[in-house]
Structure formats: C-alpha cells, structure tokens
Amino acid sequence: MKLHTNARGTVAALLISGCQLAYAHAYPTHQAPGAGSTVPASQRDVAIDFDDGLEPAFSSITVTDAQGKAVTRAKAVVDPSNQKHMSAALSPLTSGVYTVSWVAVAADGHRTQGHYTFTVK
Questions:
Q1: How many CB atoms lie within 10 A of CB 119?
Q2: What are the domain boundaries of the chain?
Q3: pLDDT digits (tens, 9 = 90+) for 77-93
C-alpha cells in the first residue's frame, strides 16, 4: 500500500505525539524547603512544583519526623490555579531531621514518587 505525502506526515505526527505521551511523568522542579536544607522551627508547610500537571485525588505529600511520626496537618493540596504546585501544611516542628515523601500522579495517569530530608534547627 502506498501512502500519500500528507498521510505519511500525519502518521509521523501521530507516532511522535504518542511517544511524548508515553513519557509524561511529573517530576519535581522546585522544593521548599529544599532537599538537605536547614530551616527554622517556624516552617509551616512543604511545597513542591512539578514539570507536569497533577491529578489531585492521587497525588500526596507526607512529612515525618525522625521517629516516623507524621507531622502534616492535613492532606496535601494541589493548587487549582496551578496544577503543577502541591503543598502540605505542617504541625509545629521541633529540632531534628524530617523526611518528605511525595507521590505525583500526572494528569495522564503516570505515577512517580520520591523522598528527601530537611533539618529543623
């Protein structure tokens, strides 16, 4: 079967767009507090910006202290005006090391996850 030039271009465009969708995962572009940073006890939230929009129902941030106790006050929130920004409010912090664990489900359903630590002085 012989394809016309326009049909070949259309097929190529569909293949390229399909390849891009296959790799659509949300990865952090900015974290506050940042990985390895030291912050004051007045830190009240953790916020992460991602390179792709998130599915709020399936994305999360959990922060735990050195004993593994959760210090997040409520479920993480994806900003409705910026689907790439997720944050979680924190309970009052004391000195020590805290671990941030995040799960990001991109709008297309692909899931990524990670963790990092920060220190409160």
A1: 13
A2: 26-120
A3: 999 999 999 999 999 99
Average pLDDT for 60-76: 97
Q: Which two tokens stand for residue 55?
A: 């599915």
E strands along 3-110, which residues? 28-32, 38-39, 45-50, 60-64, 77-78, 85-89, 96-105
Closest CA to 60 of 14, 70, 44, 2: 70
Tokens 């296959």 -> residue: 22
Q: Cα–Cα distance between 98 and 112 in angstroms, integer?
A: 21
Q: Under DSSP, is residue 48 helix (H, G, I), strand (E, B) or coil? A: strand
CA-based torsion, 68, 72, 77, 78: positive or negative: negative
Strand 38-39 versus strand 60-64 pairing type: unpaired
Torsion over CA: 35, 37, 39, 41 (sign): positive
The number of angstroms, rounded, from the C-alpha of 81 to the middle of its chain's C-alpha atoms is 16
Give the CATH number of domain 26-120: 2.60.40.1220
Task: Label residue 2 by pLDDT band (50, 70, 90).
Answer: low
